[in-house]
Amino acid sequence: TRLAVPVAISRASFMLMSLTDAVLLGRYAPGELPYVLNGWLPIGVLFGFGMGLMIGVQVLTAELNGAGRGAETVRIFRRGMAVALLYGVLAMVACIMIARPLLDLIGFNPALAEATTTCTHILAYGAIAHMGGLACQFYLEALRKPNIATAINMSAVAFNLIVGLMLVPKYGAIGVVWATTASRWFMLVLFVVAVAFLTPAFRRAPKADSGEFKRQNMVGIGTGVANIAEWGSFNLTFAIATLVSIDAGTVYGLTVQMMGVVFMIYVGMGTATSVRVAERFGRGDAVGVREASRLGVVASTLLGLILATTLILLRDPIAVTWLNGSEVASEGAHLVPLLSLMLAAVAFVTLFDGLQAVGSMALRAQGVVWIPTAIHVGSYVFMMLPLCWWLALHTGYGVWGVIIGISIASIVAGVGQVLALELRTAHTARLGLPKDAAIRAPIIH
Question: Does the predicted model carry a pTM greater than 0.85?
């Protein structure tokens, strides 16, 4: 719990920002919510890979700091920041270039495509700040300063809400995306100040070890690929729901935003599990690896049952609060019953969505990278997307077809990752870990 809570709060800030945007639009301009949700389509994919890429900053910084070589983390941060800023520029340019052709390819009508493209372009202006902020955040967390990162992230959520309240009533979706972009730059400024005053990041950098730069940028590739599969696929489901109707896209978008907030709690649980697994793996304690993995799965299951039950009990107040703003009651109120029903439908799906995160992170803590990545790609790319497309657009299920598709994929991914984890840890518990496990084990904080 001590490990999970700070990370969960920090990671939840990203989803809280998106949820804040969705709620503001749900109250003031519900018909424009699909513009923003679909506007994230190319950006979410690129950001997902970028977050994986920045894992190298966290892992190598933690390794050096844990070995008593904290002064040498200077070069890790600087290289990470350089890669982050360069990747941010490339991501911004790529999003601006492909946004409209991608929407035309999906089949959006011209008016919807134009409004969504505008949102994508504005969001893309925050790509550089987002990537730079990630580099700083992972660096701080690796130096055992997670509370600083959490405070900055939550202050950005508050900043986003304040700017959104100023802009959204008048400008709708355009106001939301400008508030989001402004909050990214606000967060980057705070992160740079914190790193400058609280870390050795701007001191002289000692000479690097051979091959360090390559390892720093390769360590997160597997996670980046998995993020592309999961985030990109979920972003495409927003487009599928929007093709059903604007109302369907609005209600489905709000439902998935709620799932995302719950998911970030599991990210904290997964991080705590991976730390305990990696510690025991590094000590060559095969039985300890198995028990730490099982504890993470069982704890996440119990937590998931509580969260799912709570979501079911609170579904009506959540739906009313999100869609029944006094200024636009006649515009959004008719969607409240459907949103309430969808929140109940996905409540227990969030349990399996969380288990796939915990299972995959525990596997990677043992150096198993491509098995969880394959499960992600298979579940979300090759199963979820075809199911959602066919059920929503080629049967009579409509938006419920998208819900069915993501539910099946989440269950398969959750069960698959937990089974892979159990088989792996049971095998090592019987045969033991290799003698060089301590050398090869990833150090995760």
Answer: no
